[in-house]
Amino acid sequence: MSYVNPGSSYTRDSRYITTRITADGRDGYPVEPGRYRLVVSRACPWASRAVIVRRLLGLESALPMAVAGPTHDERSWTFDLDPDGRDPVLGIERLQEAYLARDPGYDRGITVPAIVDVPTGKVVTNDFARITIDMSLEWTAHHREGAPELYPPALRQEIDAVNETVYKDVNNGVYRAGFAGSQEAYASAYASLFARLDWLSERLTTSRYLVGDTITEADIRLFTTLVRFDAVYHGHFKCNRQKLSEMPILWAYARDLFQTPGFGDTVDFDHIKRHYYLVHQDINPSGIVPVGPDLSGWLDAHDRASLGGRPFGGGTPPGPVAPEEAVPEL
Question: Cα separation of 68 and 158, whole Å?
């Protein structure tokens, strides 16, 4: 399985299934607690967004979750973490089966996160950017008491603008560097990435969060890239001007979020490293997974509270992680 096209820039296939699950069911899929299954991998930054939002909003019971293993092949993500290698609810070995149930001729990416309709076994959507927004806006009847407002109306325009910029240069930018097929493509992606990280550092020098004084969708989207930076992107994707831990503002910001309930307690560094270093065989043909980096620094004091801000606004932190969804502690 090749991820690098020699001589070319990397272009992400963004042909997603854009069907939505909404309160009014206008696309044929109404919000119903227990009807759907959120399929994720803890290795994937796009899926990790959905895991964090689901936990912050308290949707664990309303939207049960299936966790695929950290590696996959050409055919798709597998449920090798489950007994007998099958998801216990969907009864399938590979996520591909749910995509083909929706469209037998499906020829696009078998991606996570994906939401599957349990009664039919069909994927409803894999539109990762829309999934988390709809968790905030369409699933409100099932939010926990004290759930934060992650996409507040007054800030949506600014959140959208920040998200678009961060996606282009940072979230997808690390992939544009790592999967570049030419020196020129790599250098361009590298320059855009670190220029944007410098811009973010400046923005966060006097503000605890990216938009407003509470955690929003924008922080979640940036966090899932930052938390993978030193473990994967710095070396594996050659994003090596600096480590995150050498960028003081962003490092403190990332630690602040990591130590906030709902963020670090969803991160599995073992899954993250195994995915990138084992799956991307054309970049890392030896299949050797690095032992480092030292992760203990994620728990160091960050002093970001001195900037003010209220992590959950007028809400409250989520409660303890359910034992079946716990990740290894640092």
Answer: 34
